Amino acid sequence: MNQGNHTSVKEFVFQELTPFWELECVLFVIFLVVYVATVVGNALIVVAVTYEPRLHTPMYFLLRNKSILDIMFSTITVPKFLVDLLSKKKAISYNGCMAQIFLFHFVGGADVFFLSVMAYDRYLAIAKPLHYVSIMRREVWVALVVASWIGGGLHSTIQTILMLPLPFCGPNILDTFYCDVPQVVKLACTDISALEIFVIVHNGLLTLLMFLLLLGSYTVILMMLQSYSGEGWNKALSTCTSHVMVVTLHFVPCIYVYCRPFITLPMDTAISLNNTIITPMLNPMIYTLRNQEMKSAMRRLQRRLQASENNALG
User: Which residue, 178, 175, 2, is CA-closest to 78?
Assistant: First the structure.
């Protein structure tokens, strides 16, 4: 990504969370623990689904890919943020900033499409249980996952192409701790009104529309569950409730950030911390604590690891 001669800005400087060094050290420890928990929790889901034959179904195949997305989404911003917490100068190069924006929206966009795929999977499982296996064949799983990644790539590529020609003459201070479209575009020394409207429509309104459609689809699914009874009802309700919680955690911050003009609000930093750091950690907890099959698989995985460790020691 060559910035050429259209900008004099060589780097962007991030805003400090706090002017107190001691508090930044405390925050470093807290967010490091959260990040490690995010990676370990999602990695355990990936391993459990991969090596547990009982979880080789479309729903858990999709859940495994969701965990991979969560690890990637958190890794795009959090390690750099942790380093900056201990650094006096919290900066990122122009090229690094553009790369972070591309990756952030690539994975985030793929995640949005992927949550729609998971909703479609649950709809088929509940609305057409007799045809579910024939419809959700392995090639269909793979095609839906690939389509989600392609959708995220197209979404990110369009935004990055529109941002690269923008001139940046200064100032270069971002009112956030990572590079994102609204904060960076505001610093461009040119008229950004057309691009601002495009981003609000492309990111904000489309995200809001997808969120409403997903809530509507899960409402239909929950209404269908009224015909279920006993253990089947409890299992389906628990699964759908987990999906609704994850969809809400993911979409609400995105709507807050992108479905409005490029202005700074008091809650921006808290919402960004929640979206990039907290939510990826909560997802594996939501899926495992509310899912008996996943909890059983985790216990079996733990026994396997303990047995392997005992054999190695023996």
Answer: 178
Cβ(142)–Cβ(240) below 8 Å: no
Number of other CB atoms surrounding residue 189 within 10 Å: 15
Q: State the DSSP H helix or E strand holding residue 215, giving kind and residue range, or none if neither.
A: helix 206-224
Instruction: Give 241-304 as a DSSP string.
Output: HHHHHHHHHHHHHHHHHHSS-S---TTHHHHHHIIIIIHHHHHHHHHHHT-HHHHHHHHHHHHH
- Please list the pLDDT of the chain residue by residue as tens digits (314 residues): 444 446 678 899 998 888 888 999 999 999 999 999 999 999 988 988 888 888 888 888 888 999 999 999 999 999 999 999 999 889 999 999 999 999 999 999 999 999 999 888 888 888 788 888 888 888 888 899 999 999 999 999 998 998 999 999 878 999 899 999 999 999 999 999 999 999 999 888 989 999 999 998 888 887 877 766 666 667 777 778 888 888 999 999 999 999 999 888 889 999 999 999 999 998 888 877 667 777 777 777 777 777 776 676 65
Instruction: For the chain, count helices (H), then strands (E).
Output: 12, 3
Main-chain phi, psi angles of 114, to 5 degrees:
-70, -35
Would you tell me how many other CB atoms lie within 10 Å of the CB of residue 195? 19
CB-based burial of residue 257 (10 Å sphere; 0-12 exposed, 13-18 middle, 19+ buried)? buried
Contacts with 38 (C-beta within 8 Å, 6 or more apart), sequence order: 70, 71, 74, 78, 277, 280, 281, 284
Q: Provide the strand spans (E) within the chain.
A: 11-14, 91-93, 173-174
Nearest residue to 287 via CA among 242, 249, 238, 247: 242
pTM exceeding the 0.85 threshold for the entire prediction: yes
Joined together, the tokens standing for residue 187 give 């610093």
